[in-house]
Amino acid sequence: MTLNVKDLEVALGGAAIVKRASLSCAPGQFAMLIGPNGAGKSTLLKALSGLLPSRGHVSLKEATLGKAERQEVIAYMPQDIGPTSSLTVLEVILLGRLRSLGLSVPGDLAEAAQAALARFGLAALQGRTLDAISGGQRQLLFLAQALFRQPDVLLLDEPTAALDLRHQLVVLEAVRKHCTDHGTIAIAAMHDLTLAAQFADQMICLSQGRIEAKGPPENVLTVDRLQRVYGVEAEISLSAQGRPNVMPLRAS
Prior knowledge:
There is one protein chain. α6 links the parallel β7 and β8. The chain has one domain (3-251): Rossmann fold (3-Layer(aba) Sandwich). A 6-stranded mixed β-sheet has the order 6-7-8-3-9-10, with helices on both faces. Strands 2-1-4-5 form a 4-stranded antiparallel β-sheet, covered by helices on one side. The protein has a two-stranded antiparallel ribbon with strand order 11-12. The protein has 9 helices and 12 strands. The protein is α/β, with parallel strands linked by helices.
């Protein structure tokens, strides 16, 4: 079920935003998409999900995915999730399995939805409406919905942005476990390089719409690359697990 992307290009308003992006992710792999603001990370994720028109080739299980096929097998969680409806928390997560719903909710599906909420500490909120919970809680809820959908590919745009330290780890550990248990491919756009490196099977560094580097975190996160791509001087050390820790020192 390898995801293969070759020469993906996205143009918005006549300007090239993503330029000939090629990447490959194996089943169960958790990849981190990194790069400075404006590098094209969100645009790339939206194009992969079928939400933006693009050129190039996207395939899964050696089958080419058009726009409709991508929306069937790929779940996308955007960065900005506002209170756009008065649905309850339970109703929102059940929408992840919309095709399994009829005039009533099967008992096993309701139990599974409640278990998914409990995983993120949201069970007590299941009767609240979306506009009555915090931004961080909404972020957890929509991740729970995306996992509940059981997609082949999960695309996450800054999934930890509105979360405290503990819930950042809860989210990334949950995605890591879901990938391992179900063979799901996950790609997350992240700004915290040290946190991303802790969970990444591979890193994909985007700069000015082009893939600058891809591979294991220790190969992608180098002092020279951080200076060239991010414009910062940094120190990099290795954790006890051999993962890079990035310490930014100054803007260069």
